[in-house]
Specification:
Distance between the termini: 72 Å
Helix content: under 10%
Shape: globular
Order of helices and strands: EEEEEEEEEEEEEEEEE
Largest sheet: 5 strands, antiparallel
Number of helices: 0
Amino acid sequence: EPRLFATRDRLFALSSYVVHAWDGTAVAPANVVFRNLVADPQGAKVVGDRLVFECLAFTPGTTPSVLWSSDGTVAATVPISPPFGRESSFTKLTPIGARHALFRARDSTGHASTWITDGTAAGTRLFSDRSVYDSMDPLAYSSLDAANGLAYVAMLDPIAGIEPHVIELDSSVEPLSRGCGAPGREAELFARLGPAAQG
């Protein structure tokens, strides 16, 4: 059965093999059919103005997990993450604020880490090599809360155990220039040893 999701501009219906999107003006919805993929309607979430959901590609010997995103158009219903190792169930997206979500993924070595997404490929990246502790186990309680532009989440440190982390939801990282190793701008570092032993 398809599940319904609403953004500010569109209504989505997502099933295992197709996503439909209505914008309120077109006679028929925009339709994207998944080929050789299975989508997870139960775990899908609205992130900003996009619908984010997991798709599994069934290939011999592996079932890689890839996050997809849709703005309601065929052209912009695309994968936004590299293939991840499966958890024991479908990926759980944990929204933080209105425009971001956290999720846990495993790399090729089986190490679990926490990723963050804003529903775009450019905004989907590794957040921490520590694992978010947010009801990933049915017996665990949710640790996530958000208020006043900040999110608070418990993450599992391999040495210190479960520790609180704070995320500034509207912060961004932007490159301002090339690094100082660019041609003509090579860095130079000089060290001067003082008279004391070992400088």
